[in-house]
Amino acid sequence: MSVILEIEKSMMRSDLPEFRPGDTVAIHYKIKEGDRERIQVFEGVVIAKKGGGVRETFIVRKVSYGVGVERIFPLHSPLIAKIEVKRMGKVRRAKLYYLRGRSKKASRIKERSRYDIPGSKSGNNNAPTPHKPEQTATEEPAQ
Questions:
Q1: 33 is a domain residue
Q2: Pairing between β-strand 36-50 and β-strand 67-74 as defined by DSSP bridges
Q3: Is residue 76 part of a domain?
Q4: Cα–Cα distance between 50 and 11 in angstroms, integer?
Q5: Model's pTM, two decimal places?
């Protein structure tokens, strides 16, 4: 079993950004047409992530000319040239399949602020810090 895990680790990509369902991403995908290769950009909302390791996939949905288009991408595919996270969405579900039945306006997702992002500074940087008075010398009370 360890041989399989080693092969899978060698095939995993480390240059991909972290993204979650609800995020708007632009996928730069290599397409081969005959003898030439070009890059096509597919931009939409991530509605699901599945699997793990090398087998991890994600579904991106966009509305093109009034028609909803979904595409499944393998995360560690060598055909993905680049993934750009355009906008981070704030959602409370892991699978956003409910967006399929909604209009474009009704399927808008709120944006995650930088305070909601794990690993970033949280809280107000301008908030005053509690200040304790300094003790200079020990004085005995006068009697």
A1: yes
A2: unpaired
A3: yes
A4: 18
A5: 0.74
